[in-house]
Design brief:
Layout (H helix, E strand, L loop, with lengths): L1 H29 L4 H12 L3 H6 L5 H14 L5 H24 L3 H24 L13 H18 L4 H10 L5 H25 L5 H22 L4 H22 L1
Helix pairs in contact: 1-2, 1-4, 1-10, 2-11, 4-9, 4-10, 5-7, 5-9, 6-11, 7-8, 8-9
Length: 259
């Protein structure tokens, strides 16, 4: 019996490791922390309860984001000025959002909200990448007001959904601040690396983190995030938008249908 339980544990660890490799690659390539994509995968293939599936991947976004950001930093693609003002608002709102998960949201609501949010962002980039022409270069907007608003939205959503926040920042960086796609990905990863810290601590304190899952994911994401960012440097911005939109849309549809 103990041997059988051990095999089951090893099976879950192997699946979790594969998920870590997948989200690490997508994180570095698409400027995401990876926690949002990991939640449905952990729930469906590992069978983690909703709150543990939601929050356990969050600590892995820190090493994942740092690993990917290193690649982008070498090419000077991180917009530190914009990231600074986003973090000013996002850090306190992240803690607020994390605390809201315990008081105001049931696990089932959080799962459906996660799926709906993934679908919205995926659809936006799917349309932009496949149906619209690539827009001309525009001057980057360094509006403090818009950066703070981005930070408020990012912090709140990242806290509630236990994610790094790239899924919120990237569309806003591209549409509002007029960053090029690769610069948006790079700035997002840098911001996620900072933002993951208070969210991880808060969710760990609330008991939403599965330790084994957290450790396996943290080990796997580092090399694969670096690999993903290196691959992104070789692709056109339009191609990255198409990959990003298609991936998120397919994940959302599958996730919602399996709830």
């Amino acid at each position: 019996m103990l041997f059988l339980l051990s095999l089951i544990d090893m099976h879950d660890i192997l699946i979790t490791a594969l998920i870590g490799a997948f989200i690490g690659t997508s994180s570095g390539m698409l400027g995401l922390g990876g926690a949002l994509a990991a939640t449905p995968l952990l729930k469906i293939f590992v069978g983690l309860p909703p709150l543990l599936a939601l929050a356990s991947p969050l600590p892995s976004t820190l090493p994942s984001a740092i690993s990917g950001a290193i690649v982008y930093r070498k090419l000077g693609l991180i917009n530190y000025k914009l990231a600074k003002w986003v973090l000013v608002a996002a850090l306190p709102m992240n803690i607020v959002g994390s605390l809201l998960t315990k008081e105001f949201f049931s696990p089932a609501v959080l799962m459906y909200f996660t799926g709906a949010f993934i679908m919205f962002v995926g659809l936006t980039f799917f349309i932009r990448g496949w149906l619209l022409k690539e827009p001309p270069d525009e001057e980057v907007r360094h509006s403090v007001g818009w950066a703070l608003l981005t930070g408020i939205l990012t912090g709140l959503v990242s806290g509630v959904l236990a994610i790094g926040g790239g899924i919120v920042m990237i569309p806003l960086f591209v549409k509002i601040n007029k960053l090029k796609v690769k610069s948006a990905f790079a700035t997002s990863l840098f911001t996620i690396a900072v933002l993951a810290i208070p969210g991880s601590i808060t969710h760990y304190y609330l008991g939403h983190i599965h330790n084994t899952t957290m450790i396996v994911l943290m080990i796997m994401v580092v090399p694969f995030s670096y690999l993903g960012a290196s691959l992104a440097m070789r692709l056109r911005g339009k191609t990255l938008e198409r990959i990003f939109g298609t991936f998120m849309l397919a994940l959302a549809i599958y996730f919602i249908l399996t709830q």
